[in-house]
Amino acid sequence: MLNFISIGNHIFSRVIRMENTIVLEERLARxxxxxxxxxxxxxxxxxxxxxxxxxxxxxxxxxxxxxxNQAELDALGYEKEEYIGFPIKNFHADPEVxxxxxxxxxxxxxxxxxxxxxxxxxxxxxxxxxNSNVLRKDGKFVHTRCFTRDITDRQxxxxxxxxxxxxxxxxxxxxxxxxxxxxxxxxxxxxxxxxDFGLNVLIxxxxxxxxxxxxxxxxxxxxxxxxxxxxxxxxxxxxxxxIGEVVESSRLLTTIHTIEVSGCTGVVVYADQDKIGQVLTNxxxxxxxxxxxxxxxxxxxxxxxxxxxxxxxDQGIGIRQSDQTRLFERFYRINSKSNQGASxxxxxxxxxxxxxxxxxxxxxxxxxxxQGSRFYFDLDGVSIAEGVHPVIKKS
Length: 395
Description:
The chain is α+β, with helices and mostly antiparallel strands. The chain has four domains: 1-48; 56-150, PAS domain (Beta-Lactamase, 2-Layer Sandwich), CATH 3.30.450.20; 155-227, Helix Hairpins (Orthogonal Bundle); 235-383, Heat Shock Protein 90 (2-Layer Sandwich), CATH 3.30.565.10. Helices cover 48% and strands 23% of the residues.
């Protein structure tokens, strides 16, 4: 009896071991399948990054390139041993740009379409857009994840366009200036007799010629901005005098608007007078253009401590909220039924924005559709009403 029980226990133990072995073998087979699948995914991911058509690289916390894919190496012409392991700053054409990029990334900023210039092995320079952020583990900087997109061809095409615009604008400017001078001479002669018709014709001619000259100035400045050659020549001047000149000229452009000046007396600013004049001319011109029913346009000044806020308000068609963020892009024009008759190239507000950036200022807008718009910006300035020469902050 005991032998029978012992044999039964032995058989049961073997069965249990066999079952456990089968279970373990099934688990092992499943683990092997999962491991193979994981290996395949890792290989596919590795292939994706290594052989992607877009250049990619990683940079560590010290600014050293620790990995780059083949597209990055091919784009710049380097071998792995010439690129990986070296400081990323060695391959940037503009030291201040890579310094800014690394600073932003180290502060957890994500970069979108950041423009930069990279040096190729053959000595050429590529214009790129950079999209990048940082991988962190337990709060520690591990490496950047940087995608670069070559826009050299687009940049060169833009440069050709800018050169063409500059050439055409320059060629137009001289004959237009001569025509304007002759019109001034004829105006002076006509004002001495009673030929009202001839006088009105000359006034209208002068207005149109001035518009063309301003357009030529806009295109020239656009080209200078793209080339980084827009210079700032700042002086101290009375802003009220400049505003008065701009308003007086602008009144010739319309017969259905009332252009008024508010609060701009006894104020001096330190800025580029010609360029601030262009800013005001463009803003008032826009107010006229986008107020087709007429109404009041107010050019105002408001003292805010050591700043002067200058504004241009109208009672025009207003601007949709969705358009306000793009107003200051180059060549951007609002597409709506209410402004279909308005002429222009979409560079006026872009130039306004760029000129004010050069003055450490910014153009702002408040607008409600069908209720009008108010554009405003700040400049350094103080009151001189009491005859005390101001101490002006010069940037």
